[in-house]
Amino acid sequence: MSSNTKGSSRMLLRVPMQEQILFAKHLSVMIRAGMPLLDSMRLIRKQTGSKSLAKILDQLISDVSNGQFLSTSMERYKNVFGDFTVNIIRVGEAGGILYENLEYLAQELKKRHELKRRVIGALIYPAIVLMASSGIIGVLTIYVFPKILPVFQSLRVTLPLSTRILIAASGFLINWGFMVAIVVVVTVIALWIAMVRIKLLRFFVHRLLLVIPIVKKISRSYNLTNFCRTLGLLLKSDIKVVEALSITADTLSNVVYRRHVRDIGSHVTKGEEISQNLSSRPDLFPIMVSQMVAIGESTGNLSESLLYLADFYEDNLNEVTKDLSTVLEPLMMILMGLVVGFIALSIMTPIYEVTKGLKVR
């Protein structure tokens, strides 16, 4: 097999975050208990349920048995594990504290995983309610209402505005609904592909996420938590500041934050302080961040200051997501009730008017 083929096959490998957490945790426990690294990896290889991780472990075991460092072997799977994981393990191997760094790594990956799930979880309920509302509206306007429509047409009376709007909407969905759905799906897919391939568009969208009022709080707290915790752990592991900033930038999901953190790294190489560069972008890094970082730099406890900030913004994110769920749930229910009520009113009003006229006669 050629090197290009091997490289492309490695790019296709994906290991779930939960499996990465268990790998780091189990390896840490086994090494701490005195089990040799190779035996530990072989045992994990037998127990793992992930085919991708099993394939990776086969290669790691082969490399380590041939005298390579674990971190050196893992570098070829950087697209799977990321620079952060590789460097934490590299520092652990160099300092003889591999099991400690693996424990740090497991905790950090778990926190990141829970953080991501928390953000996604806050948006799932509104999405489900929106989909349910769309489904109900579609059933009523495409299947139920057309069966009642001939009755309205036979009445030969002036229909209420709401009923006429519903008739127009129903006709449009019946005639063009399928095409509209295809256009929406194709547009979403095209925008997603464009975001992946066009850097300028991706930057614009990520910048927009930092401007929209509700989304802004979630996005900023999420990125600040990851920035502070990743940089804090890397510095705590004695990785040089410039290298730590470069690794931290690669772990950030927002392109705007990623670009600015890389810029900070280039300024630090010129002798500038991190806090000085953070304070130049208060829209990304609040004053509290730059001040705490400045205190950490002056006292020599920068890693501790960053880890404190990470916990602070994680708690802040928890509060924001809770508030978001609390606000969105009743709003979505009210919206769903208004739409269904409008449809019901549009159907019932003409019938009521006709029956009322019959009673008068």
Q: How would you characterize this protein structure?
A:
With 361 residues, the chain is an all-alpha fold. The protein contains 15 helices and no strands. The longest helix is centred in the last third of the chain and has 59 residues. The chain is elongated, with a radius of gyration of 28 Å. The N and C termini lie far apart (90 Å).
Oligomer: single chain
Overall structural domain count: 2
CATH architecture of the largest domain: Up-down Bundle
User: CATH topology of the largest domain, what is it called?
Assistant: Receptor-associated Protein
Report the CATH C-level class of the largest domain. Answer: Mainly Alpha
Helix content: over 70%
Please give the count of helices: 15
What value does the average pLDDT take? 82
What's the end-to-end separation, in Å?
90 Å
Q: What is the structural class?
A: mainly alpha
Strand content: under 5%
Fourth-level CATH superfamily of the largest domain = Type II secretion system (T2SS), domain F
Summarize the structure.
This protein is mainly alpha-helical. Helix content is 85%, strand content 0%.
Q: Mind sketching the topology for me?
A:
Blueprint: H1 3-12, H2 17-32, H3 37-47, H4 51-65, H5 70-74, H6 78-95, H7 98-155, H8 161-197, H9 199-209, H10 213-236, H11 241-251, H12 255-268, H13 274-278, H14 287-299, H15 302-360
Give short descriptive properties of this protein.
15 helices; Receptor-associated Protein; mainly alpha; 361 residues; 85% helix; disordered N terminus; 2 domains
